[in-house]
């Protein structure tokens, strides 16, 4: 077990993600504005080279399966994929991309699965650090000018840190991602159901299959066994 100093990590992260924080944080001094919430984005730049794969998870999870089985998902990555991540299970990005959707009425951006692009949830992440290091495309997308260009294209202003970045670049380059089954990140938050999206909520929230990891996001209670 290796413990990493948060202050040291943040110091290394900040130059890489500083520009990102303007687009994907709620504002200076707020919870997600801390650079550490962009750790996954640049993990390949700050972890030792001998570490080639990492699973990064939120704390509000309950495991119903062996995490070794999750690690085996790395074997299912297609060529070019660098990150494994599950879809967002609420219409949060239907909301965030509202202006782009209005200007592009036939877009799949923000639409529900299986055919739409609902965005991602970063509660469970498989980071193939070696692939991230070698991917010219992925590293280009970290450049401030490229981030700026994409946020302008999609009229994107988020507040969920790394999740927003992955969602936005996923709209442009879905080939960078291996989409995990919803059962690996069964999100339980229903906030958006009561905030204007009850008519379409279940299209995003449904998840068939035996749950492997419950995610009690937005402080939602996790079912007892």
From TrEMBL:
BP-aspect Gene Ontology terms: protein O-linked glycosylation via N-acetyl-galactosamine
GO molecular function, one term: xylosyl alpha-1,3-xylosyltransferase activity
Top-level taxon in the UniProt lineage: Eukaryota
Alphabetized UniProt keyword annotations: Transferase
Database matches in Pfam families: Glyco_transf_8 (PF01501)
Classification via Gene3D superfamilies: Spore Coat Polysaccharide Biosynthesis Protein SpsA, Chain A
GO CC aspect terms: endoplasmic reticulum membrane
InterPro entries linked: Glyco_trans_8, Nucleotide-diphossugar_trans, XXLT1
UniProt protein name: XXLT1 xylosyltransferase
Gene of this entry: Xxylt1
């Amino acid at each position: 077990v290796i413990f990493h100093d948060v202050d040291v990590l943040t110091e290394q992260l900040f130059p890489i993600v500083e520009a990102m924080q303007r687009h994907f944080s709620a504002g200076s001094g707020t919870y997600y504005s801390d650079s550490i919430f962009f750790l996954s984005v640049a993990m390949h730049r700050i972890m030792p080279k001998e570490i080639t794969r990492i699973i990064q998870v939120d704390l509000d999870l309950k495991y119903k399966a062996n995490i070794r089985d999750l690690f085996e998902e790395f074997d299912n990555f297609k060529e070019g994929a660098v990150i494994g991540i599950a879809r967002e299970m609420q219409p949060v990005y239907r909301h965030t991309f509202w202006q782009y959707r209005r200007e592009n009425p036939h877009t799949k951006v923000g639409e529900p699965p299986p055919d739409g692009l609902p965005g991602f949830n970063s509660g469970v992440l498989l980071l193939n650090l070696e692939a991230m290091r070698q991917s010219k495309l992925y590293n280009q997308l970290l450049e401030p000018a490229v981030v700026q260009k994409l946020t302008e294209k999609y009229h994107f202003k988020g507040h969920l840190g790394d999740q927003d970045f992955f969602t936005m670049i996923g709209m442009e380059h879905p080939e960078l991602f291996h989409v995990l089954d919803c059962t690996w990140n069964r999100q339980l938050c229903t906030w958006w159901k009561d905030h204007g999206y009850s008519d379409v909520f279940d299209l995003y929230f449904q998840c068939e299959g035996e749950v492997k990891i419950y995610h009690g996001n937005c402080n939602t209670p996790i079912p007892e066994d």
